[in-house]
Write a structure and sequence with these properties.
By secondary structure, the chain is an alpha/beta fold. Helices cover 34% and strands 27% of the residues. The strands form two sheets. Strands 6-7-8-3-9-10 form a six-stranded mixed β-sheet, sandwiched between helices. The mean pLDDT is 92. The structure holds adenosine-5'-diphosphate (2 copies). Residues 12-13, 17, 19, 36, 38-44 line the site of one adenosine-5'-diphosphate.
Length: 225
C-alpha cells in the first residue's frame, strides 16, 4: 500500500503564488507528521490529497493509479478530518456519526457496526447520547477523528487534530493516533512537534512550497537545535 506524490506543483492566482513546487513523496503505512510555517503549503497538499484541488503539474497515485482516475474508489479508502470542522452542537455523538455515515454513503448495517466499534475506539461510549455542545475540546476532536474512521480508511488525513487542546489532551490524542495507525497511511498536519514525536515514523517539513526534509523525527529535532 502506498501513496505517491510525484513532482506535484500547485499555484494560485494564475501562477503568481507558488503554493507547492515539485513535491516528491512516497508514503507507506505508518504515521507521518506534516510540518511547516504558515504559508508553507500544508493545506494545499492536504487539499490535493483529499481531491479538493487538482495539481497543475505532477500526479498523486494510490497503489500506482492516479487518484483523479480512481475517483470514488479513492474516496472510499480515504478518511479526512478537516481543520475546524463544523460540529452540529445539537446532535448527540451517536447522531453525528450516523449523519456522517449517511453522508459517506455507508449502508445502515455498515454504519451500525462501525459506529458501535468507533465509539469504543475513541472511548466515548458513555457520552454517546450526550449533545456535542457538552463535549470538552478533546472529546470533540475524538468524535471528529471517529467520523474520519467510519469507512475504515487505508489513508487517514488529520489536519491539526490537537488544535485548541491543552497539553494533557494533546498527549491523549497523540497516543490515540498511534493506536489507530496500524496498517494505515496516516498524515498528521500540526504546528506542535510534540504531537508527532514518538509516534511518527517520518516528519515531512515544507517551507515556501518546497520539501525541506523527510526524515525521522529525531533527526528533525536535532536539526532544529
Ligand atoms: P493553515 O492553518 O492550514 O495554515 P491557512 O490560514 O493557511 O490555514 O488556510 C486556510 C484555508 O484558506 C486553506 O484552505 C487555504 O487554501 C486558504 N487560503 C490560504 N491563503 C489564502 C489566500 N491568500 N487566498 C485565499 N485562500 C487562502
Ligand atoms: P499552509 O497550510 O502551510 O499555511 P497553504 O497551503 O494554506 O499553506 O498556503 C500556501 C500558499 O498559498 C500561501 O502563500 C497562501 O497564502 C497561498 N494560498 C493558499 N490557498 C490560496 C488560495 N485559495 N488562493 C490564493 N492563494 C492561496
Amino acid at each position: 500500500m502506498k501513496l505517491h506524490i510525484d513532482e506535484v506543483s500547485k499555484s494560485y492566482q494564475k501562477g503568481k503564488i507558488k503554493a507547492l513546487d515539485g513535491i516528491e513523496l512516497e508514503l507507506t503505512p505508518g504515521v507521518y507528521g506534516l510540518l511547516g510555517p504558515n504559508g508553507a503549503g500544508k493545506s494545499t497538499l492536504i487539499n490535493l490529497l483529499v481531491g479538493n484541488l487538482k495539481a497543475d503539474r505532477g500526479t498523486i497515485s494510490y497503489n500506482d493509479v492516479d487518484i483523479t482516475k480512481l475517483g470514488r474508489q479513492y474516496r472510499e479508502v480515504l478518511g479526512y478530518m478537516p481543520q475546524q470542522q463544523q460540529l452540529y452542537d445539537d446532535f448527540t455523538g451517536t447522531r453525528f456519526l450516523w449523519y456522517m455515515a449517511a453522508m459517506k454513503g455507508l449502508s445502515r448495517k455498515q454504519a451500525q457496526a462501525s459506529i458501535t466499534t468507533l465509539l469504543n475506539v475513541v472511548n466515548l461510549q458513555e457520552h454517546a447520547h450526550k449533545r456535542l455542545s457538552s463535549y470538552s475540546g478533546g472529546m470533540k476532536q475524538r468524535i471528529l477523528i471517529a467520523q474520519a474512521l467510519l469507512n475504515d480508511p487505508a489513508i487517514l488525513i488529520l489536519d491539526e487534530p490537537t488544535a485548541g487542546l491543552d497539553p494533557k489532551e494533546r498527549i491523549n490524542i497523540r497516543n490515540f493516533i498511534a493506536t489507530i495507525a496500524l496498517n494505515k497511511i496516516v498524515l498528521v498536519a500540526t504546528h506542535v512537534v510534540t504531537d508527532i514525536e514518538c509516534i511518527a515514523k517520518e516528519v515531512i517539513l515544507l517551507k515556501k512550497g518546497k520539501l525541506i526534509m523527510k526524515d525521522e523525527p529525531t533527526h528533525l529535532l536535532k536539526s532544529m537545535e
